[in-house]
């Protein structure tokens, strides 16, 4: 019995293929899998690749997906972008509001990440209060627009506890791999992580990336942000 699909197919998307057999037999439309235990196996597989708190993909799935997407970049010449997101001063949220409220903030952040990204993007919890999104076939310019939209949505969201409410912010680092560029998945992660560090160390609540021209560093703000929004206003699915 083997799972042949490279990408996860949630059990809800499976079709029951043969009721007459009287057993739990399912036919996966993506991978053509046919097995009496396929549904149970897919549920198990989903658990193995999912972060239980946020429902996003976990670190294990992130690493294997990034390798696949970087291979795809070489084959298709379409760039792959990477977005690393870290909540600002999250320790204070736990300290002031408690761990359970902290968990609610992580869930909210996961929901916002899913809302602003596309279905084919790969949204993962990297660990703790850090998230990472792989954006296949996405230039750095487009990724910066998505990141800025996410940063804004986090900043604008109210977290309500009883009759009180508070806000959180996020810092975001971006990197991109172009088809002709060499380097490992770890290099791409390090590059996004370095940018995230820059976003944190230069004030937080901002998106940071090495600019569209090599070696040029940039943050998205003011007029540039407006121009980006205008150029890619039809980007959202
Ligand atoms: N509620 C909750 N807290 C978590 C979880 N995982 C990690 N944390 C907390 O996240 C906090 C991260 O704190 P720091 O690494 O100091 O970072 P920070 O306070 O966000 O500060 P900066 O990143 O520098 O802005 C720690 O207090 C961890 O305990 C989790 O699953 N749930």
Q: What structural keywords apply?
A:
binds guanosine-5'-triphosphate; three-stranded antiparallel β-sheet; disordered N terminus; 237 residues; six-stranded mixed β-sheet; disordered C terminus; alpha+beta; Alpha-Beta Plaits; EC 2.7.7.65; globular
Write up what this structure looks like:
With 237 residues, this protein is an alpha+beta fold. It has 2 domains: 28 residues, no CATH class; 173 residues, Alpha-Beta Plaits (2-Layer Sandwich). Helix content is 42%, strand content 20%. It has 7 helices and 11 strands. The strands form 3 sheets. Strands 5-6-4-9-10-11 form a 6-stranded mixed sheet, with helices on both faces. It has a 3-stranded antiparallel sheet with strand order 1-2-3, with no helix packed on it. The longest helix is centred in the first third of the chain and has 18 residues. The protein is globular. The N terminus and C terminus are likely disordered. The protein binds guanosine-5'-triphosphate.
Write a concise synopsis of the structure shown.
The protein is α+β, with helices and mostly antiparallel strands.
Task: Tell me the layout of helices and strands.
Elements: E1 15-16, E2 26-27, E3 34-35, H1 38-49, H2 59-76, E4 80-87, H3 90-97, H4 99-116, E5 122-127, E6 130-135, H5 140-156, E7 159-161, E8 164-166, E9 170-177, H6 185-201, E10 207-210, E11 217-219, H7 222-231
Parallel strand pairs: 9-10
Antiparallel strand pairs: 1-2, 2-3, 4-6, 4-9, 5-6, 7-8, 10-11
Helix pairs in contact: 3-4, 4-5
Residues 53, 86-91, 94, 99, 102-103, 106, 128-129, 200, 204 line the site of guanosine-5'-triphosphate.
Cofactor: Mg(2+)
EC number: 2.7.7.65
GO molecular function: diguanylate cyclase activity
């Amino acid at each position: 019995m083997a799972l042949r699909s490279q990408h996860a197919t949630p059990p809800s998307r499976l079709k029951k293929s043969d009721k007459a057999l009287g057993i739990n037999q399912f036919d996966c439309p993506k991978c053509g899998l046919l097995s009496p235990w396929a549904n149970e196996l897919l549920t198990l597989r989903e658990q193995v690749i999912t972060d239980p708190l946020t429902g996003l993909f976990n670190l294990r799935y992130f690493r294997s997906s990034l390798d696949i997407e970087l291979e795809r970049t070489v084959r298709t010449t379409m760039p792959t972008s990477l977005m690393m997101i870290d909540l600002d001063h999250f320790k204070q949220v736990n300290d002031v509001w408690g761990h359970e409220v902290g968990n609610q903030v992580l869930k909210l952040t996961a929901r916002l990440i899913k809302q602003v990204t596309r279905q084919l993007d790969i949204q993962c919890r990297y660990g703790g209060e850090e998230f990472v999104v792989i954006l296949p076939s996405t230039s750095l310019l487009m990724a910066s627009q998505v990141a800025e939209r996410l940063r804004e949505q986090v900043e604008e969201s109210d977290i309500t506890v009883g009759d009180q409410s508070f806000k959180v912010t996020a810092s975001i680092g971006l990197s991109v791999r172009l088809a002709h560029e060499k380097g490992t998945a770890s290099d791409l992660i390090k590059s996004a992580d370095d940018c995230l560090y820059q976003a944190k160390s230069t004030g937080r609540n901002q998106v940071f990336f090495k600019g569209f021209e090599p070696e040029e560093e940039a943050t998205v703000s003011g007029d540039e942000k407006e121009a980006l929004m205008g150029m890619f206003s039809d980007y959202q699915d």
